[in-house]
Design a protein that fits this description.
single chain; alpha+beta; 2 domains; 7-stranded mixed β-sheet; 9 strands; 19% helix; 38% strand; binds zinc ion
């Protein structure tokens, strides 16, 4: 998702309209790669503004995360706005942009919008993802997904290997009789 902004920088144009939908497989966030369940919809613009180049855009997409209780995959719809200056690595001084949001990019000619979007996921990801408010989660004993299967913890007690040692002795005695 590379946007060439060279002619905006050269002041040949006043703004770049962003209005597109792009299919992307994954997006990185916090050292993890998330699959996307929908294309990324971008609507907004990049303008020149006193201090530099400024992006203001609305982002819509669905990512695939895991339910924090049962670990099943869940589609998480995200809809958020990004606003801030686009700044190049070497020109970036935190003081100058202190009161503004700034997105640091490597290449100011070809801006990687996907990178800016992932820099914004931080504030826009839900803290806790659930497949359902009433998700029953996994049994801590047997690991059964309690939404669709029964707990197998009681079966284990009947299992020879897990039999209580005292009963094992009793069983041994009965066998010898
Ligand atoms: Zn769940
Ligand atoms: Zn269980």
């Amino acid at each position: 998702m590379i946007i060439n902004i060279e002619n905006l920088r050269r002041k040949e144009i006043d703004k770049i309209d962003l209005n597109f939908c792009e299919e992307i497989d994954t997006i990185s966030y916090c050292d993890e790669k998330y699959k996307l369940a929908s294309p990324i919809e971008v609507e907004g613009k990049i303008t020149r503004n006193g201090k530099g180049l400024y992006i203001n855009a609305n982002i819509k997409m669905s990512i695939v995360d895991r339910c924090s209780r049962c670990l099943d995959e869940v589609e998480v719809p995200l809809d958020f706005n990004i606003q801030g200056f686009i700044v190049q690595d070497k020109n970036y001084s935190e003081d100058e942009y202190e009161e503004f949001d700034a997105f640091v990019v490597e290449d100011l000619e070809n801006v990687d919008l996907l990178n800016i979007i992932s820099q914004n996921l931080d504030f826009n990801m839900p803290h806790k993802v659930l497949c359902d408010e009433d998700c029953k989660g996994l049994c801590h004993g047997c690991g059964a997904n309690l939404n669709r299967e029964d707990c197998r913890c009681s079966e284990k007690i009947n299992d020879e290997d897990n039999i209580d040692p005292r009963f094992a002795k009793l069983k041994e005695l009965l066998k010898n009789e």
